[in-house]
TrEMBL record:
<keyword id="KW-0805">Transcription regulation</keyword>
<dbReference type="InterPro" id="IPR020449">
    <property type="entry name" value="Tscrpt_reg_AraC-type_HTH"/>
</dbReference>
<dbReference type="InterPro" id="IPR011051">
    <property type="entry name" value="RmlC_Cupin_sf"/>
</dbReference>
<dbReference type="GO" id="GO:0043565">
    <property type="term" value="F:sequence-specific DNA binding"/>
</dbReference>
<dbReference type="GO" id="GO:0003700">
    <property type="term" value="F:DNA-binding transcription factor activity"/>
</dbReference>
<feature type="domain" description="HTH araC/xylS-type">
    <location>
        <begin position="185"/>
        <end position="283"/>
    </location>
</feature>
<keyword id="KW-0804">Transcription</keyword>
<dbReference type="InterPro" id="IPR018060">
    <property type="entry name" value="HTH_AraC"/>
</dbReference>
<dbReference type="Pfam" id="PF12833">
    <property type="entry name" value="HTH_18"/>
</dbReference>
<protein>
    <recommendedName>
        <fullName>HTH araC/xylS-type domain-containing protein</fullName>
    </recommendedName>
</protein>
<keyword id="KW-0238">DNA-binding</keyword>
<dbReference type="InterPro" id="IPR009057">
    <property type="entry name" value="Homeodomain-like_sf"/>
</dbReference>
Amino acid sequence: MKKNVKSIPVFQLPEGTTNGLEVMQFLDFTSGPEAIMPVHRDEHYIFIFQQSGTSVFEVDFKSMILEGAGLMLVRSGQVHQVQNCSGITGWILALDKTLIDDKFRLIFENCEGMLPLYPEKECLQLVEKTIQLISEVHHNKLHARFHRDSLSLLVKAYTGFFAGTIESSLVQTASKPSRPVSISNAFKLALSRDFREVKQPAAYARALCLSLSYLNEVVKQVTGFPVSYWIKDIILLEAKRLLCYTDLNINQIADELGYTDYAYFNRLFSRNTGTSPLEFRRKYHG
């Protein structure tokens, strides 16, 4: 572990980026661990369209392998690293999160356990055509007056293929009323944004103009767990990220997560993970 690492690196779109996006094509690209970027977060979203090859990712402590033709998504704020690439042909779109349709963001923020994606061949063909158009329009500013509008429509179509593939994979969605699903998604989006400052279930209910009992009922119906579970879950995930990828001490990590009672934070972590924060850090680093 590197010394004096006080925060997890946060990568932004390169200076000089236009239109809020970067698009890159790879042709038979191979790279081992020595050439891969360090563990980091991105302020933007990463949309990967792989046409062939094998990629190995670690995203928030979960190993994911994309084999052959498929799609991969890394959300803004997730701690991740590409660990290995072999014979990769495909495209990467780095996209400012403000350019993503709100309906799609709700889907992307609630796709745990569903990645990578393997759409039908016809969908992948449309994905390929769309990313090629995005690249051409982005790099060749034809019809300057309508350039951004044209690019925005193409980006919406492209990200829509990802959102549509995720939604079609949610076998349970069809049997659930749309309102509960929408409410649950809105709660989890608000939680991902505000969990450091807001930890009371009632506060999320108020923000969504709902009673706490109804929000709990809906979230449990859709996800299987109540509101308090998800608040605790995201806090523990962020704590694990900071324990593994920074040198912050336990009190500093508690501060980062909005806790001034350090003993309480220690008890919360230990009770829910079965190990103390320090022991968790030691185990991760061997």
